[in-house]
Q: What sequence folds into this?
């Protein structure tokens, strides 16, 4: 199998990414910079706080796996029963019905979106 030569196309992947990143709209950059004010964990040994959106069977399974690496501090689901069960599994995590409220929480470092794709 032959390898693709980047110079054949006149640029390589790194140059392409640099070029496309410079054309992002200003509103996108400003919006994402404003979200960057959430402080990361203080040390590599500190576990990040994780939010879970979608607390059905798959979401709780994903959260169980993620809990090995971080702490589930917030859960969100339109079904109160699912959200309650997920909260109890993770040390009484904060419960939300509206995912936007969960995303506003400043101490969350990562979010698991386990909503089904058919919704």
A:
């Amino acid at each position: 199998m032959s390898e693709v030569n980047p110079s054949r196309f006149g640029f390589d992947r790194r140059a392409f990414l640099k070029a496309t990143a410079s054309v992002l709209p200003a509103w996108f950059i400003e919006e994402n910079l404003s979200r960057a004010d959430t402080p990361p964990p203080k040390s590599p040994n500190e576990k990040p706080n994780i939010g879970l959106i979608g607390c059905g069977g798959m979401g709780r399974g994903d959260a169980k796996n993620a809990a090995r690496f971080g702490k589930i501090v917030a859960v969100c689901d339109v079904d109160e029963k699912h959200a309650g069960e997920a909260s109890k599994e993770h040390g009484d995590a904060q419960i939300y019905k509206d995912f936007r409220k969960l995303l506003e929480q400043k101490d969350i470092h990562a979010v698991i979106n386990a909503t089904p794709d058919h919704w």
About this structure: The CA atoms of residues 53 and 76 lie 5 Å apart.
